[in-house]
Amino acid sequence: MSPQTSYSYIKFDLEIWKRKEKMISQKKIVSSLICFLLLLLLPIAFSETTRNLRGISARAPTVQQIKNKHGAKEVIVDNGIFRVTFSSPQGFITGIKYNEIDNVLNPHLRARGYWDITWQRENIFPKLDRIEGTNFRIITQNEEQVEISFSRKWNGGTDHVPLNVDKRYIIRTNTSGIYTYGIFERQPEWPEVEMGLIRVAFKLNPDRFHYMVVADNRQRQMPTDDDRDIDSGRAKPLAYKEAVQLTHPHNKMFKNQVDDKYQYTCEVKDNKVHGWISTKSNVGFWLISPSSEYRSGGPVKQELTSHVGPTTLTTFISEHYVGSDMETRYKAGEAWKKVLGPVFIYLNSDPTGNNPQYSLWEDAKRQAEQEVEAWPYDFVASSDFPTRQERGTITGRLFVNDRFLTPAGSAYVGLAPPGEAGSWQTNTKGYQFWTQTNETGYFTIDNIRPGTYNLYGWVPGFIGDFTYPNLLNVAAGSEINLDRVVFKPPRNGPTLWEIGLPDRTAREYFVPEPYKNTMNPLYVNHTDKFRQYGLWQRYTELYPNHDLVYTIGVSNYSQDWFYAHVTRNIGSTYVPTTWQIVFELPYVNWRGSYTLQLALASAARANLQVRFNNENSRPFFSTGDIGRDNAIARHGIHGAYHLYSIDVPGSLLRTGTNTIYLRQSKALGPFEGLMYDYIRLEGPSTA
């Protein structure tokens, strides 16, 4: 082969190599472009939730005022994500169209989405007022949102609660939900009235929603409202009206289970989001409470959430788990005004259908976090709702002085209207702002409405309530630094013995196993096993002939101290019960004064009598009739907190064996009783 021929072959091979390189380079570019496009499409293909109606883009909300086919006036607001229909001027939400569902609310009920209030006046039986508006107004309408009002002024009659009420609804652009708040006002010259309950409630479509979520570990498939029907024979009544046993439910999986809305209550501090999921439509309906400033009773007050119906609600004022001690009476000459809310009704959907129970709940929690972060909202039109700039902040550091000074970690610190220590438990009329200290006792309370407050608090691990000695006047934009705040919990002497943990609950005590034929499977092997029905009845079975005896140094409160001091059933009647605490004292100071610190986590129509070393003597101490919180019947492990510091003369005690008799003397039925938080005997002061 000639050199020229060899060169030709080499040149030809080089051309082929160049072409291959070019093709490879082009393929790499195409491959990179495809990967890039796939990365862009991945969030769409695998997104957990979507908030838009299929095929419809979000847009500025529109408002229509129409008459329906029955001639009734309606207001329709549509933002392209959902469409909500209101009765006008009443202000009931009668329909919400979202995704493929024409109405996520129950189309068979007149009351579907509404505010209501229970009230009574002298010589007038208790009434339920659904707060029907008499006047409709558009407050705001622009590219960003619509805010509408359904209001009613009191006309001086007895048909409605003596209040002026303005119900507001806000629908925003590109937002999958409805904000609602209410402005409630009474004039000082109006008659005395008692208002026991104010709430917002929604009755959902029973053909769509069957899965309910209250928390990560409190969610389940639910029976239907029809399953609770006693008259049709599907259920039988139990010891109180809210609880029924499902004897012939439509779905056999619920047979013999107990349904009771109080099994799903939640403490205010944890009550941020709850609701329902339609696994049929992959749609979620949620109630989000971004703040607790407008609620009553403090951070650990328990309130209803969602329950069979399907029903979901937000309660602003109630007597639940406190009872008639709640401050719900407004006297003649007393003016009052309060903004309740806003709360957020949130809708979401999962078009993939892959585990909607998980994806929709996780998205609802993320949305709740966003609402909390955005509080206080900057889009509320009412001047009665202060913006962030119109609010104040209080900071400080809390210490506990119980024989020595330590930072109060994880303590509850809050602002509430002026009053005595612990008065925040029963306050409904003002606003409350609560937080918890960090591990070194520092706290910040922000977004405080202007006003005059007391600073209150308590520290887990210590008894008693803290109150700052001076009133705090919060002004718009104010920043108050309290520096060091010291809480000195009740103590008169050294601890001789103690029972329980001072955490304001009876959670640490013995909670028995539920009855297998009246069980809620949700709470089997659950941290909240106290939410099972009928646990109070176990006391009679455990102690059929004699009452509980607890021996200090021998007994274990988690096994030997029943969670509730209840009555004993002896057939057709109930009798009082007397518990004993047996303890040894190697030495008694006859002239000294001992202290029995007795902290109660709950009381329901109870009278606790305390005797020392003689069961048949007159009571040395009696609480008198206390409590209406019904925590025993309503599966609560705590209600309202009570603390009694009882001075005990040394002459009542003995060297050697002593016995304290705790007698709950009220016994009209199964639910008179109390729960202990913590008991401690202190020796005489060594100061």
Main β-sheet: number of strands, strand sense, barrel status? Answer: 9 strands, antiparallel
Count of DSSP E strands? 46
What Rg do the Cα atoms give?
A: 31 Å
* Coarse morphology: globular
Order of strands across the widest beta sheet? Answer: 7-8-9-10-24-19-18-12-13
Helix proportion: 10-25%
Q: Tell me what portion of residues adopts beta-strand conformation.
A: 35-45%
Instruction: Give the averaged pLDDT, no decimals.
Output: 92
Ends: how far apart? 119 Å
Number of helices: 4
Which spans have pLDDT < 50 for at least 5 consecutive residues?
1-55
**SS class:** mainly beta
InterPro entries: Carb-bd-like_fold (IPR013784), Gal_mutarotase_sf_dom (IPR011013), Galactose-bd-like_sf (IPR008979), GH-type_carb-bd (IPR014718), Polysacch_Lyase_4 (IPR051850), RG-lyase_II (IPR029413), RG-lyase_III (IPR029411), Rhamnogal_lyase (IPR010325)
Protein name: rhamnogalacturonan endolyase
EC number: 4.2.2.23
GO cellular component, one term: extracellular region
Description:
- The chain is mainly beta and 687 residues long.
- A hairpin with a 2-residue loop joins strand 12 (211-215) and strand 13 (218-221).
- Mean pLDDT is 92; it is low at 1-55.
- InterPro entries: Carb-bd-like_fold, Gal_mutarotase_sf_dom, Galactose-bd-like_sf, GH-type_carb-bd, Polysacch_Lyase_4, RG-lyase_II, RG-lyase_III, Rhamnogal_lyase.
- Pfam families: CBM-like (PF14683), fn3_3 (PF14686), Rhamnogal_lyase (PF06045).
- One of its GO terms (biological process) is carbohydrate metabolic process.
